Amino acid sequence: MARLDNKVAFITGGESGIGLATARLFAAEGARVHLAGLHAGRLAETVAELGPDAAAYSVTDVTDEGQVIDAVAQAVDRFGGLDVLFSNAGISGSIAPITQYPTDVFRRVLDVHVLGAFHLLKHAWPHLRDGASVIINSSVVGLTSDGYATAKHAQVGLMRTAAKEATGRGIRVNSVHPGPTDTEFQRDIEMTATGGPPDVAARIFDARIPLARHACAEEIARSVLYLACADSSFVTGATLSVDGGMHI
Fold first, then answer.
1. SS3 32
2. Is residue 82 a contact partner of residue 76, using CB atoms and an 8 Å limit?
């Protein structure tokens, strides 16, 4: 039996990278998935790939509360109640010391990562079935520092607050913390951080990873699946590192 048979999952940032890999894996495991993201063309391609009976999408900016409300309503109208939330939308921001960090960029990073996750939890919560699973995609820097660490640490606080509130309904809430992953999103971060071309930047980052390589998006998706399904039935309020040892 597939691990997500008859389950309905809502995924933000579902049109590329980890979100796309997770959508594919969830569908392969029997789930119907509703994808929210900014790029209509990519979202439509994914729905066509997975099949209209298994997938749908909404063009959604998670920082806009009204758009999140609408996207959740569309998912519920199409598929019924929700069993899995994967809050995955994110941006990279700037790389600079605090004294030089642009305030508008700092605010935008917080809005996407923290306010966006809050909007999803707030408005999907009433539609979650008892025993549902919520996963917030944070980062290794949500356990350490550097980069957009403030926003990623805040996601952990939101996750733990939600986990405590959810216990009465048997809903589990956890966060996953990827290290460098071979995605377009990560390549942009690495080129900005190092000033080098993609291959050079990737090698520099590989040298910082104890396992000496990037993850692929499918490896992160398998960890999200673990948190989404009954395999992790006694796990809540946890931070799952999938970072090749970078948090050590």
1. strand
2. yes
